[in-house]
Each structure stands twice: as C-alpha cells, then as structure tokens.
Amino acid sequence: MATYLAFLRAINLGAKRVFPQGDIRRVVEEAGFADAATHINTGNVRFTTAMRSRARIEDRLERAFAADRGFDVPTIVFAAGELAAIADTARELNAARPELARHYVYLLKEQPSAAAIEQIESTSSDLGEMIVRGRAAHALLLPGYEAGRVDPLRAAKLLGVATNRNFTVISALAERWC
Questions:
Q1: CB of 17 closer than 8 Å to CB of 84
Q2: What is the largest CA-CA distance in the chain?
Q3: 92 in the same domain as 68
C-alpha cells in the first residue's frame, strides 16, 4: 500500500462550500482508500491505497466528494515522496532568501509546459518571485507585497488547476506524513 496526500481546492471558503475534516476522512474511506487522516481544515488528507494511477485516484476522490457534497471539489494528489521533495525544495528556496515575507506553494494538478513555466516565472517583480519546479510553483514574496492579497504576482491564472498552501503547512505535512 502506497501513501498519498490529496489537496482539496476551494473548500471551507464560505457557507456553501463547507467540508469538515471528519466528513473528508469518511468520504475518502467510503471511496475505498484506507488510513485517512486530515491536517487543519483546509483540505489536506493523507491515505493509503494499492492504486498507482494518480489520475484514477483523483477521479475517484472527485466523484466521491461531489456525490457527498453536491459541488465539485478539484483534488490534487501527490505520492508521499513527491510531497517530501516539494518540501525539500521549499526549504532550500527559503534558506537562500532570508528576506522573504511569505512563501506560498501552489500545488498543480498538471505539470506546466516549458512555455507556461516561462510565462509563470515572468510574473516575478519587485514584489517577489515565481519559481516552478515540477508540479509546484513557489510564490516567494518580499516585504511590501501587500499582505492580504491572494495573488500579488498575478500568476495564479497561469497555473491551471491548483491550490496553495503556505510554507509552514507544506513543511508540517512533509514532516508528519512523508
């Protein structure tokens, strides 16, 4: 049985897209996955399965979530080792830039093309830098980036289906589950 982590996009953002942690764990297990565990109420879930196809795992989870909730829940899945590598990259990027005010990691459903990576990374400015590594895009924000703005570098629309977590959450998940 392999360990995977799923990141649910756009849940618990208002009264209509509520998906409590206990319900997430229940639906994951009802969908045929084992050992479901969640971390904070932003849609982070770990589970085990004998399935090996990321696309099939995402499809099964998305169908189960939609059936249970009545709304689509885009789901982005990584093997535990993949998330550990993303966390390692995030730590390296942070260590090389001690001046950062914030570090967000966008987790991508699909790896962007070379042309898309070039376009994403070109959104870098005096507010910060975008760096793409595989299926993760790192928003490295400098002091003065306007705290509270969701996408100060205006790169999110270029990423395709994605969800973000801050550096602290990515690090905690990697330490806890990978």
A1: no
A2: 47
A3: no
pTM over 0.85: yes
Number of domains the chain is built from = 2
Per-residue confidence (pLDDT) for residue 2, from 0 to 100: 97
Place of tokens 């085990």: 48
Summarised one tens digit per residue, pLDDT across range 21-41 is 999 999 999 999 999 999 998
Residue 34 region by backbone torsions, left for phi larger than 0, else alpha for psi between -120 and 50, else beta: beta
Q: Report d(CA 91, CA 164) in Å as an integer.
A: 16
- Closest of 63, 73, 56 to residue 2, by C-alpha: 56
Q: How far apart are CA 72 and CA 54, in angstroms?
A: 18
Are residue 62 and residue 87 in the same domain, yes or no? no
Range from 8-12, 24-28, 67-71, 166-170 carrying the lowest mean pLDDT: 8-12
